[in-house]
Amino acid sequence: MTAAGTARPATGHLAGVARGGSFAVLGTGAGSVFGFVLTLVITHGLTTTTAGQFFSATAIFIVLQTFLSFGVGAGLVRFVPRFQALDRQADVPALLMVAFVPVIVLGIVGSLALWLAAPLLAARIGHDQADAALHSIRILALLFLPGVVEVGIVESTRAFGSVRNYVLLQQLGIPAARPVLVGIAIAADAPLWVVVLAWLIPLLLALVLAALLLARRLRQLFGRSLAWPQPTVPVRDIAAEYWRFTGARGLAGVMEILLNWLDVLLVAALASPAQAAIYAAASRFITSGTLVLQALRVAIAGDISAALARRDTERVSQIYSTASQWVVLSSWPLYLVMAVFAPTVLRVFGPSYPAGAHAMTVLCLAMLVNLAAGNVGTVLLMGGRSSWVLMDKAASLAINVSVNLALVPHFGITGAAVAWAATIVLDSVLAFGQVRWGMRIGGSLRGLVLAGLLAAACFGLVPVAVRLLAGSSLVSMSVAIALSLVLYLPMVWLRRDTLGVRILLDALSRRSRP
Questions:
Q1: What is the signed CA dihedral for 208, 211, 216, 219, rounded to 10 degrees?
Q2: How far apart are CA 21 and CA 374, in angstroms?
Q3: Most buried among 222, 388, 437, 444, using CB within 10 Å?
Q4: What's the burial of 22, exposed, middle or buried (CB within 10 Å: 0-12/13-18/19+)?
Q5: Sign of the dihedral through C-alpha 169, 170, 174, 176
Q6: Rounded to the nearest 10 degrees, how much is the dihedral formed by the CA atoms of 144, 266, 353, 182?
Q7: Rounded-to-integer distance, Cα 202 and Cα 210, Å
Q8: Distance (Å, whole) CA 339 – CA 335
């Protein structure tokens, strides 16, 4: 079944995805811009050594935060819509208790463990400036518990159907506040631990606001007295159902975040904090370009969970395949340009950072595979296949650590990039195969292949030709983008039905009408 053939019957729910996704794209896009601004503030305001310590310390926090929140976000986003779709709304209050009590306990344990491990961690990432790293890790330990709880509270807003509140808090509010507060701390010549504290404050504010929103939603559903209804099944059965899924997702989430940040920590430990700063700037640039993928993940998760609960795999296939085409159409051009003009792109961080150009090119090419696979992780998780995701992440992490240890001592950040690229490709291919052949979800690949060919022809061949003729500069990159767009946009418009563009445009135009 082609994308064009599914456009008419799928228009209703795909239009909803398009409208929800468009708002999430705006929020995620703004969040990516603010994240990029934060990186600029750090790389221009701090020395490369101090910037490397900042990136390493916050990486430790993010890894532990993901570990000890233990998949609570994915668990709530799957089970709240699922319970509502199956007329089990009375089980939702018990579900929240089952989800949050263990996370709070783990947050307390993690805070104490991080405080006690601070001297050892500081010695590894701080090298000859271990004291600055020590104070930074200690401030992270003090505020670790609210940081862990924040994950579940903010994700609850999305679980109860409010993509808007989730985007405003997590993908817009926090990223917007961080460069401002961190910039103020740097401008005041504050020590590193104060800069780290400035990075944490928006997280605490988001926690408070999300808790108020969640409390209001619960009052709307169950009354102001919070006289929660009796669960339809015993709480222990709800706990078993929830944690069978979420436990595996929690471990997979840890491995996923390790795949994103472990290379930064290994570069800091095996090379130097300065090299870690250069690699962090290049690699964070890569992740910031996935805004459409992440926005659609936010928009489709609830719909996919409810559809799979009703065993409506045809609807899931239509949502997933069309969303994947939108991702490739919008994101491949960006990564292809960054791969070709990596030295020019990295120059914005300062004169030292183009040293990461080879690493950035390797990662950009690997991300093409990740983007083409689409939101396979969301489909697996919403379908209850968290154990499959766990196995994928375990295999990818084993490859990542092995290749990093083998290559980083000899090839530095380029070796780290090769390691991460290999894991990106492996993880994407495994998950794609599981969704397509294990869950029988995916539909026709015609639209996806066409989107990839158009993007590669226009934004791959043209920029390569321009760089060969004119070198890597801001002017040559701008010329390449302009020429590519002149070719790309008409071609996409001519094949708009096959590519699912008409559905997107129709949905957005209906939203704009009074």
A1: -140
A2: 14
A3: 388
A4: middle
A5: negative
A6: 10
A7: 12
A8: 6
Closest of 325, 364, 324 to residue 451, by C-alpha: 325
Count Cα neighbours of 258 within 13 Å in the Cβ-side half-sphere: 19
The C-alpha atoms of residue 172 and residue 44 are separated, in whole angstroms, by: 23
Q: Which two tokens stand for residue 136?
A: 């930074």
CB 245 within 8 Å of CB 386? yes
| Three-class SS state of 8 | helix
Contact 395, 373 (CB under 8 A): no
Q: What pTM was computed for the model?
A: 0.71
91-119 b/e (C-beta count within 10 Å ≥ 16 → b) = bbbbbbebbbebbeebbeebbeebeeebe
* Burial of 127 (C-beta count, 10 Å sphere; 0-12/13-18/19+): middle
Task: Extract the tokens encoding 419.
Answer: 């390691």
Distance CA 137, CA 124 (A): 12
Q: How big is the chain, counted in residues? A: 514
Dump pLDDT digits (tens) for 111-161: 999 999 999 888 877 666 778 889 999 999 999 999 999 988 998 888 887
Condensed to tens digits (0 to 9), the pLDDT of residues 220-277 reads 888 765 566 788 888 899 999 888 888 777 777 777 777 777 788 888 877 777 888 8
